[in-house]
Structure formats: C-alpha cells, structure tokens
Amino acid sequence: MFPPVNSTLYKKNKDMKKIIILLILVTAFSSCIKKGSDLNLKNYFKNYNSCFVLYNLQTDITKRYNNNQCEVQLTPCSTFLIANALIGLETGILKKPTQTLKWDRTKYPIKTWNRNLTLKEAIAASDEPKFKEIAKKIGSKRMKEYLNKFSYGNKDITGGISKFWLGSTLKISANEQVKFLRKVLLDKKILSKNNLNVMQDILEVKKTCNGILYGKTGTEEGLVLGWFVGFFKTNNGKTYIFATNIKAKNNASGQVAKEITINILKDQKII
C-alpha cells in the first residue's frame, strides 16, 4: 500500500513549483529587455559634477553618464518653461508660436526681456517675467493637475505659483526630464497634435544635415547649475531624447550644458 498523501505538504509543493516557474519566466523576460549602457564622457565634463541621459525612442534603449547624478532631483530652472508653455497651450492661455507676450514696462537686468516678445522668442530668451504671468493665469489647481499628468519630477509647487521652478520647491532629475519628454511625445491623451507641433516650433534650436535639434536651456542663479534638455529628430524618422546637467561653483550655465550636449551628440553620430 502507498502511504497516505499529506494534502497540506502537497499543496505547498505545488505552490512552490508555481513560484519557481514564475521566477523562471520573469528572469527570461528580463533578459529580453534591451538595457542601456554606461557612457564614458569624462572628457566632456572635466570641470563639472554632471550627468547625461540619452534615450532612443525607437529601440527603448537608454544610455547614461554618471548614473547616480542622473537620479538626483534638482531645480529645473528655465527648462520648466517647456511644461509651462505646454500647459498654457492646453488651457488656451497661449495659442501659437507667434503670439505676442507683452512687456509689463518694468526695467529688467536682461535687456531682451524689456520688450514685447513672441512665444518662441520668450522661450529662447528664458523670459522669466512673462512666464511668471502665464503661470499665474494657469493657476495652482490647473498647474498641479498637469504636473501630475506629466509626472513632472516631485510635482511640488508650494514655493509659489510664480517662482516654484526657480531654485524653489519643484525638483526634477535628468532621468525624469527624459521621461517627461517621452510622455509628451508619445501620449496622445496628454497633448493635442496641434500643440505638439507648436512645442516643436518654439523649441527648435537648429537644423543639421541629419535632422532637427529641439531643446531648452536652464541656469540657476549664481551659475552653479546648468541644464540642457530636449530631443533630436532624424531625417529617417528616429527620435533621441536627452538631458544634461552640470554643477560647479561657477560657470555652470545652460549655454555650457548646451554646447557640451551638442558635442556629445555629434560624436555619437546622431546630429
């Protein structure tokens, strides 16, 4: 005669087999995911504590320099004007790239701000006063709703509706900058096609033989932090999203971050 079957033990063994099979499947699936690789870009960032993220929209592969820094949330500075403009467009406060944003007649230290500018010109000039007014018109409630939709950094606007992105409560990492732009470019529920086209128009930096570069700089007061974030669309339909930040005691500006980024993209045979 066979010994009696212990139903409890049998059930445990059966459950254990299920767990083992599940782990095998998960491991096999994970091995199929296309992982990114680390980039050796020390020569580009000799004088800075910095990071760089490059994401290929078609292959879903991400490459990074300085992984730890890519996770650190920092003030977005004027790179937030991308989100600010998009929310203005989606709420109807802004209409088109050629829309005139009026100067409030206050004398500002940056001469470009002391005149009327189109939306496209205001983005290029990082015109804080004009975008502060746009943020006020959007209001805290709608601003918060859209930052949640965008999954924009820590989404914290408690620093004040006209300044939360300027060395204040809103923080975002380089990885999160890329995720934000990826969501904007792919999620049709977030942004209308027309406003996506407007966004590309106002962010266009330059055309190359290989495609078009779009981006926005950002600089923290005191030149201690510089950002350049954006994307490059190739003539053959590929899209690369990137984010660069540099930190130092001085000379860490968005313009420097932009120049470094362009050199990296050139050497990576992208632009």
Could you walk me through the main structural features you see in this protein, from its secondary elements to its overall organization?
The protein is an alpha+beta fold. It has one domain (36-267): Beta-lactamase. Helix content is 39%, strand content 18%. The chain has eight helices and eight strands, in the order H-E-E-H-H-E-E-H-H-H-H-E-E-E-E-H. The chain has helices at 7-32, 67-70, 81-90, 119-124, 128-150, 174-186, 193-203, 254-267; strands at 49-56, 61-65, 100-101, 117-118, 204-207, 211-219, 225-234, 239-247. The strands form two sheets. The protein has a six-stranded antiparallel sheet, sandwiched between helices. A two-stranded antiparallel ribbon has the order 3-4.
Give a nutshell description of this structure.
With 271 residues, this protein is an alpha+beta fold. Helix content is 39%, strand content 18%. The protein has one domain: Beta-lactamase (3-Layer(aba) Sandwich), CATH 3.40.710.10.
Pairing-aware structural class of the strands and helices?
A: alpha+beta
Average of pLDDT = 90
Which topology does CATH recognise? Beta-lactamase
What separation lies between the terminal Cα atoms?
78 Å
Major sheet size, sense and barrel closure: 6 strands, antiparallel
Helix and strand sequence: HEEHHEEHHHHEEEEH
Supply the CATH class. Alpha Beta
Strand order of the largest sheet: 2-1-8-7-6-5
Q: How does CATH name the architecture?
A: 3-Layer(aba) Sandwich
Portion of residues in helices? 25-40%
User: How many structural domains?
Assistant: 1
CATH superfamily: DD-peptidase/beta-lactamase superfamily
Given as residue ranges, the uncertain stretches (5+ residues, pLDDT < 50) are 21-34
How large, in whole angstroms, is the Cα Rg?
A: 23 Å
Question: How many DSSP helices?
Answer: 8
